[in-house]
Amino acid sequence: QVLLVESGGGLVQPGGSLRLSCEASGFTFSLFIMRWYRQAPGKERELVAGITSTGAGTDYADSVKARFTISRDNARNTMYLQMNSLKRDDTAVYYCNARLPGGVLEYWGQGTQVTVSS
User: How far apart are the C-alpha atoms of 84 and 88, rounded to whole Å?
Assistant: First the structure.
């Protein structure tokens, strides 16, 4: 059974930090490109950050560059998103995505809520 389980979300004040985790099981994690997406109320889901299967390459949405850091530990089948200097606009449900190069297989987590508010 394929599972992507996000954790680490919660309520944080503007300027604060959170670290999200995405634990994978049921597939060969090290072969998959991993991404974080988010969806705010009333908005479309958007790509936040991505990381290659080996972790050698990363990419970020302009809105989170220099504030968020994506990483992965293939030995632990886990991906992370370190979020610093959080803003109210970062409030959203954050989703973990796994995609095999070529797009043949793709998996989604159930999401974790991040709320930035004072």
Answer: 12
Report how far residue 85's alpha carbon sits from residue 114's, in angstroms, rounded to the nearest whole number: 13
Report how far residue 6's alpha carbon sits from residue 14's, in angstroms, rounded to the nearest whole number: 22
What is the Cα–Cα distance from 48 to 40, expressed in whole angstroms? Answer: 12
CA distance 40 to 21: 19
Instruction: Quote the pLDDT of residue 108.
Output: 98
3-state secondary structure 35-96: EEEEECCCCCCEEEEEECCCCCCEEECCCCCCCEEEEEECCCCEEEEEECCCCHHHCEEEEE
pLDDT digits 0-9 by tens, 50-90: 999 999 999 999 999 999 999 999 999 999 999 999 999 99
> Is residue 103 within 8 Å of residue 34, measured between CB atoms?
no
CB 64 within 8 A of CB 48: yes
User: What is the distance between the alpha carbons of residues 40 and 71, in angstroms, rounded to a whole number?
Assistant: 23
